[in-house]
Amino acid sequence: MRLIRELVFPLIAVFAAFLIGGIIVLLIGDNPIEVYRLMISSAFGLFDALGNFTFDNWGYTLFYATPLIFTGLAVALAFKCGLLNIGAEGQLYIGAFASAWVAITFSSLPGWSLIPLAIFAAIAAGALWGAIPGILKARFGAHEVINTIMLNFIAVGLVSYLTQNHYKTPGDPIMQTVPIADQAQIVRFHGLLSPLGIDFPQRIPLNITFLLALLTAFLVWVFLWRTKWGYEIRAAGASPSAAEYGGISVRTQIVLAMALSGALAGMVGINEVLGYRHRYYHDFSAGYGFAGIAVALLGRNHPLGVVLAAILFGALSRGGLFVDIFTDKVSKDLVQVLQAIIILFVAMEALFRGTFSKFLPAPAKKA
């Protein structure tokens, strides 16, 4: 029953957002039913306009969802310790560049060692960048929101300088590094499913990082709810004074939570560098770090909820492209409007609880 109650309110927020979005579309002068039909079919549909079976819609939706799973988990884990990590954007930039740097610098290594090394670099670099505001918070009481925001600017500027002056192909007008080693490229779903006789299009960039994201979500759940370290992080976030009284070092948990949060954000680089572009491309992030905040809130800071919310946001991104192309008056900006309204309604959860709680089963009482 508790799970049902926890799922109902985010679903109400999503429904209310789509309802208001439909009213906005109607006021603009377009047909909200047709707009939503186009959005949903282009995100989850299994057939194209000619009636042919296609993997494109689901493939791109899951690809767009992959970085949001990592950043949503990053924000959710920090939330569990009572921290607001606004720095996932900078942490994912650092992680992506570190992954590319390893895959370029150690290009003579075989793939079986280079890929794990590049993955570790993305995780370690993100963890380091996340630990900095954690240490400042634990040691000096500096607010993590201010620190993480400032570190975002430093991260983007730092990797921009390194790319421009040391790792960019001379004469290349695009801000990007040279390509990574071929053996550092991780397999896409095309290469994964083709040996099984499944014709998954090579053009779809969905790669095994999505499976890694699902595994990471499961491991985060195990860590937070099935380990001593996860319990201590949650205890420090729920009541710092009670945690200290119980012998838990809140300062240690703050640093640990921020480092782990940064590590999760840094894993976005695995998808971007090793699985998609095969190089570091500056400005690759479509605000993944900030969207992760919305994903974590909608997902109730639970790994399963984060995965579902990330897929929803990925579907909005995919569907928004088709809405922009095939409708006369509605642009892809509707996606941002829907995301914003969803978050506003999630923030108004107390209103929904007061209005709808009487229609839900009461939580079971302990004997």
Give structural notes.
The chain has helices at 2-28, 32-44, 56-80, 88-105, 111-140, 144-167, 189-193, 209-226, 228-238, 240-245, 250-266, 268-277, 288-298, 303-326, 333-347, 349-356. By secondary structure, it is mainly alpha-helical. It has a domain at 67-313: ABC transporter involved in vitamin B12 uptake, BtuC (Orthogonal Bundle).
How do the helices and strands follow one another from N- to C-terminus? HHHHHHHHHHHHHHHH
Structural class: mainly alpha
CATH class of one domain: Mainly Alpha
By oligomeric state, this entry counts as single chain
Give the arrangement of secondary structure elements:
Layout lengths: L1 H27 L3 H13 L11 H25 L7 H18 L5 H30 L3 H24 L21 H5 L15 H18 L1 H11 L1 H6 L4 H17 L1 H10 L10 H11 L4 H24 L6 H15 L1 H8 L11
Helix pairs in contact: 1-2, 1-15, 2-3, 2-14, 3-8, 3-11, 3-12, 3-13, 3-14, 4-5, 4-6, 4-11, 4-12, 4-13, 5-6, 5-11, 5-12, 8-9, 8-14, 9-11, 13-14, 14-15
At a glance:
With 367 residues, the chain is mainly alpha-helical. The chain has 16 helices and no strands.
Relevant terms:
about 375 residues, mainly alpha, ABC transporter involved in vitamin B12 uptake, BtuC, 16 helices, about 0% strand
